[in-house]
Structure to design on (788 residues):
């Protein structure tokens, strides 16, 4: 039995309503732990005063420079003593989950047992960078909790100016749209950067994210410095049985309004079967005895819309891999940036393909480490130095797929034009 | 006395996922053919091998006590073959290889208070941050805002009644850890930081703080004989970027830290290219424990979107079709001068055409 609870009139109101209540969970923990009694008091104080009261500090585990988020209370009495003394320290351990966030109940129960023993009993699945967040631990217990979590085969994630924990979509494990083995790429890349994760020494954070198709369920284009997004080069695949099944259920209006008209590049046409053409870049599939879809794959931008609507009837092609984009980030400090294309297509099938991906990742992180200013994200660095300088630095060739349009102003020195044309022609002739 | 022997970490990195996969997922790894949704909250995947799995998705509070996690494990052991996974939006997924297990699993989840839904054209769980519970710089709470909003959107989580999927996020400072979303709720500070000049010299690395400001509004200064920093309040955009490296520059204010609502962000490439979200409302009070003013705006936008958008239009697609003036007209939100972009590159957001809907 824990000590008497604090009055929490604000938090109490968050126990009502149908959605699962984290407050009810906190109270269950507070029934056994003074730690959580005071945590509830601490949080209620924030609700009453509308301010936060945690400050950072330096807490870690032996051998690592990051992965623990230290929190010390700032709610102090007139003698500078913590008002909520049992919750004066409330550190978080960031732990990297398996790619795709799959668990057995066995491993989850082991996490619970460890966190019941050493921590608050509060676990977040998952933080916005993808970590399992073991929330609420005293300085004294951080090492003990980590030792046991680590013994289960789990490791701390990134914090501060480091390579960060990554996320990959469910992908190969349960998704027909998956264009490469996301989990394999995730694990191969991240586990090659463990030193940069555990010992923060970069200019600022660097995030990788892995999505298996253009639906980008991991939000990689905007939330990672290097996004690996699955795509394909050849023709879209079709399945007549599933196409006919879809058409029988949904009919012509939905086909026209939701599929054909929504194609952003008008690559899809509805045709009479007798008029359907065949050709090296065309896919087609019959919808009934007289009508069919014809897709010009040269016009298609792999946006995924029609495949999302008619899943299975339409599918990614067989020559699969990924597009690599660099520079995504959120607001601070120059405003939001989307990642932009630096490799239009990279095959990702064989072990050698994955080696090449890792090699590129290393070149990019190395260049970032050397060239970014303190607290500057990769995208901000590219904005400052220009994409061409970045590409030359990481030894990537330019490609018109990297721009939405060529330049619209004349402020550039072009006296190297002829040599550049000659170089590119020689290279493409080789 | 010798130092105690410290245990060296095993730098094992990301664990091998194959050991945690449901056996049917492992068996059909990379070999899935298509999926459909028999009902909201349930996905049915079919493999090229002919194998089938059913996934039941349920909402959680994300910040879970171990009793909740153990309860979910009990349900997984009794009804769902001992495996679970989580989505990026903190929904839990139970995978079963037998269709007959789906209905009892749903019953058990709902009986224990876990809503089944979040698939397809629903409003899924809100991607969110740490807030007052754990963050060192929060302007508001996260879990509480999400709980209050999801209570209001509960039925939309459980049904697929929206034109397309709706992704929400909340963030407790302008860094926006919650990320891009169809609708996002983000703190918007309205007053420059209040500086505790007694502490700056001891706590802050002053050149780093000066460098952090996006509008060069901070400069070193001697205040009351102490080395400190001062803010040009005419330049200051109240972003709060100086606060993390220099906590004595307090940006959070119970009264003046407001909430803003943003719409039309998406990361998906489907149809339109990925879009940044746009600010459409600000000045909403930070009003715990249930933030009713924010919930009112979010629900109003959702209601209009639901009524007005065509099938498969995400928030951004819908606004692209109807235009911004009509968005403000239909939602009843007020377009003010603060919504005209004047940040670098902001001119690209002006209407350089006579494309005007009347």
């Amino acid at each position: 039995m824990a000590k008497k609870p604090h009055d929490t009139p604000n938090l109490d109101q968050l126990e009502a309503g149908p959605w699962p209540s984290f407050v009810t969970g906190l109270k269950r923990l507070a029934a056994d732990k003074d730690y959580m009694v005071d945590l509830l008091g601490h949080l209620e104080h924030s609700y009453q005063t509308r301010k936060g009261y945690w400050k950072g500090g330096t807490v870690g585990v032996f051998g690592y420079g990051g992965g623990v988020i230290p929190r010390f209370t700032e709610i102090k009495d007139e003698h500078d003593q913590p008002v909520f003394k049992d919750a004066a320290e409330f550190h978080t351990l960031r732990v990297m989950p398996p790619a795709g966030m799959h668990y057995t109940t066995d491993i989850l129960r082991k996490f619970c047992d460890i966190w019941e023993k050493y921590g608050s009993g509060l676990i977040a699945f998952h933080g916005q960078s993808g970590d399992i967040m073991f929330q609420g631990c005293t300085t004294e217990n951080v090492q003990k909790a980590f030792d046991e979590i680590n013994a289960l085969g789990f490791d701390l994630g990134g914090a501060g100016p480091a390579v960060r924990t990554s996320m990959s979509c469910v992908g190969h494990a349960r998704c027909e749209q998956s264009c490469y083995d996301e989990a394999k790429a995730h694990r191969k890349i991240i586990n090659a950067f463990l030193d940069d994760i555990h010992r923060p020494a970069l200019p600022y954070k660097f995030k990788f994210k892995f999505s298996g198709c253009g639906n980008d369920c991991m939000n990689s284009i905007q939330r990672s410095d290097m996004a690996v997004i699955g795509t394909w080069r050849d023709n879209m695949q079709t399945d007549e049985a599933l196409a006919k099944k879809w058409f029988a259920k949904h009919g012509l209006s939905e086909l026209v309004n939701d599929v054909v008209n929504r194609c952003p590049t008008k690559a899809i046409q509805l045709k009479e079967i007798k008029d359907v053409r065949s050709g090296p870049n065309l896919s087609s599939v019959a919808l009934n005895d007289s009508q069919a879809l014809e897709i010009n794959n040269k016009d298609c931008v792999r946006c995924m819309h029609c495949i999302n609507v008619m899943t299975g009837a339409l599918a990614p092609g067989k020559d699969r891999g990924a597009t690599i984009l660099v520079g995504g980030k959120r607001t601070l400090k120059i405003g939001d940036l989307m990642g932009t294309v630096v490799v239009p297509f990279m095959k990702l099938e064989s072990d050698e393909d994955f080696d090449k991906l890792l090699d590129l990742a290393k070149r990019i992180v190395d260049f970032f480490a050397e060239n970014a200013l303190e607290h500057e994200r990769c995208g901000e660095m590219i904005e400052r130095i220009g994409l061409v300088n970045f590409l030359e630095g990481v030894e990537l060739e330019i490609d018109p797929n990297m721009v939405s349009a060529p330049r619209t102003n004349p402020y550039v020195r072009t006296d190297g034009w002829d040599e550049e044309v000659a170089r590119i022609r020689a290279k493409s002739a080789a | 006395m010798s130092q105690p022997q410290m245990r060296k970490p095993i730098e094992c990195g990301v664990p091998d996922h194959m050991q945690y996969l449901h056996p049917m997922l492992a068996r059909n790894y990379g070999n899935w053919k298509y999926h459909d949704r028999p009902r909201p909250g349930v996905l049915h995947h079919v493999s090229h091998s002919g194998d089938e799995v059913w996934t039941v998705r349920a909402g959680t509070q994300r910040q879970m006590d171990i009793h909740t996690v153990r309860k979910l494990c009990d349900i997984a052991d009794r009804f769902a073959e001992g495996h679970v996974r989580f989505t990026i939006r903190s929904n839990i997924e139970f995978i079963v290889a037998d269709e007959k297990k789906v209905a009892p699993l749903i019953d058990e989840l709902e009986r224990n208070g876990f809503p089944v839904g979040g698939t397809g054209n629903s409003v899924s769980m809100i991607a969110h941050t740490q807030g007052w519970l754990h963050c060192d710089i929060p302007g508001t709470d996260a879990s509480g805002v999400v709980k209050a909003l999801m209570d209001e959107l509960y039925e939309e989580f459980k049904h697929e009644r929206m034109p397309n999927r709706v992704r929400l996020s909340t963030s407790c400072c302008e860094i926006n850890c919650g990320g891009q979303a169809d609708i996002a709720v983000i703190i918007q500070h309205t007053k420059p930081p209040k500086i505790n000049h007694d502490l700056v010299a001891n706590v802050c690395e002053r050149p780093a703080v000066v460098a952090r400001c996006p509008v060069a509004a901070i400069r070193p200064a001697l205040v009351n004989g102490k080395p400190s920093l001062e803010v040009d309040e005419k330049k200051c955009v109240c972003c709060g970027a100086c606060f993390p490296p220099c906590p004595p520059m307090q940006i959070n204010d119970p009264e003046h830290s407001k909430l803003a609502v943003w719409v039309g962000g998406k990361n998906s490439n489907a149809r339109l290219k990925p879009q940044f979200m746009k600010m459409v409302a600000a000045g909403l009070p930070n009003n715990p424990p249930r933030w009713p003013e924010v919930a009112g705006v979010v629900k109003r936008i959702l209601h209009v979107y639901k009524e007005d958008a065509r099938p498969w239009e995400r928030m951004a697609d819908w606004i692209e079709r109807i235009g911004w003036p009509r968005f403000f007209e239909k939602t009843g939100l007020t377009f003010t001068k603060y919504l005209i972009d004047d940040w670098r590159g902001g001119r690209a957001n002006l209407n350089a055409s006579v494309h005007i809907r009347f």
